[in-house]
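quick q for whoever's on today - can somebody do inverse folding on this one?? i tried earlier but teh output was garbage lol. tokens:
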């Protein structure tokens, strides 16, 4: 994207998107306050989390933690450079949603 605008090595500071799955994960976190479950559910079960994971990977970054910003009801991602960069074309692979849902149902 930075190539489109003619700016090299500049990443966006803010990206805002709202989706129902993310809102339900946020609501569940507000009820349980379970940070590990919030991270896992947001990254694996929401479009925002899954696309953020792929985008971070494409830029050689990894999501280390997330935090809920209550005032704006949004999720802040904290990123770090990947220790070992993956070769180009070898992107992160996420399980399909139906596999994640089946795993969740069997553990409950």
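ok took a stab at it. sequence:
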């Amino acid at each position: 994207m930075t190539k489109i605008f003619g700016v090299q090595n500049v990443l966006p500071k803010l990206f805002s998107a709202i989706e129902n799955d993310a809102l339900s994960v946020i609501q569940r976190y507000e009820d349980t306050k379970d940070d590990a479950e919030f991270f896992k559910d947001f990254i694996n079960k929401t479009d925002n989390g899954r696309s953020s994971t792929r985008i971070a990977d494409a830029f050689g970054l990894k999501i280390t933690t997330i935090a809920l910003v209550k005032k704006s009801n949004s999720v802040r991602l904290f990123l770090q450079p990947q220790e070992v960069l993956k070769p180009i074309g070898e992107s992160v692979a996420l399980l399909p949603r139906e596999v994640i849902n089946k795993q969740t149902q069997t553990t409950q």
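fwiw The chain is about 45% helix and 15% strand. also Residues 20-82+92-101 form one domain. so keep that in mind when u check it
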